[in-house]
């Protein structure tokens, strides 16, 4: 670097030092989060993020922030009990199947809060709920329907699990016959008439009695001790290709809404704040 260049640099440094806007902080004053200097025209604003530089070296953060997602009510309540307060806010969003606690919410309209420390209870439907609702309104073959009944016998109330298991076995045993008609009995059951074909010739006729309605009890969400009664109306269709079987669940949305209200009621009774219906807000 030439002597002229050095002189030019020194001139610039002197000009910047003379015109820079600075503040002095004493040891007793509050530690700044940001230091900035305004360099003269045609230069730039220089800043130093004190908070970002010092954060890794502090014994503890200045405040807790972040979002934790929990999958059962017991864990979620335990987290709220440790971090929450009467100033926290809780929102239940039925569409998203989530309950969100805003731990550091505003205390009131005059005392804002950061709103960036949250605990989310993310609800997931149980295997039983998914199994019954996945088959809702669908007609399947005899063997597939029988396997579904066998797998879900713990959920059955009426007919009993033993009766439905026997019925499932009957569906499997008659999967090679030709069903001809169905009639409604005085008991409310359906009687299906079939013809068994043996070696290409018409064989023995038979009948199969099936219920018109199934009563079940199903846990709605994983990790949530809420089970609901439901009814399913039996459906069948006799076609040239065989017998198609299925059911239609009654008032699924109403049952789910009632379970949701039970859940919010249980949470509210365990919390110092009410559970508000809706989506948690975003605080600026």
Backbone shape: elongated
Low-confidence stretches: 20-29
Q: Tell me the Rg in angstroms.
A: 35 Å
Main β-sheet, spatial strand arrangement: 3-6-5-4-14
Question: What letter string, H or E per element, gives the SSE order?
Answer: HEEHEHEEEHHEHEEEEEEHE
Average pLDDT score = 80
Structural class assignment: alpha+beta
Distance between the termini: 51 Å
Query: How many H/I helices?
Result: 7
Q: Tell me what portion of residues adopts beta-strand conformation.
A: 25-35%
Taking the sheet with the most strands, its summary is: 5 strands, mixed
Name the helicity range: 25-40%
Number of domains: 3
Structure description:
With 284 residues, the protein is of the alpha+beta class. Strand 1 and strand 2 form a beta hairpin. 29% of the residues lie in helices and 32% in strands. It is built from 7 helices and 14 strands. Helix 5 packs antiparallel against helix 6. It starts with a helix and ends in a 7-residue tail after the last strand.
Task: Give me a quick take on this structure.
The protein starts with a helix and ends in a 7-residue tail after the last strand. Helices cover 29% and strands 32% of the residues.
Question: Which features would summarize this protein structure in a list?
Answer:
284 residues, alpha+beta, 3 domains, five-stranded mixed sheet, four-stranded antiparallel sheet, 7 helices, elongated
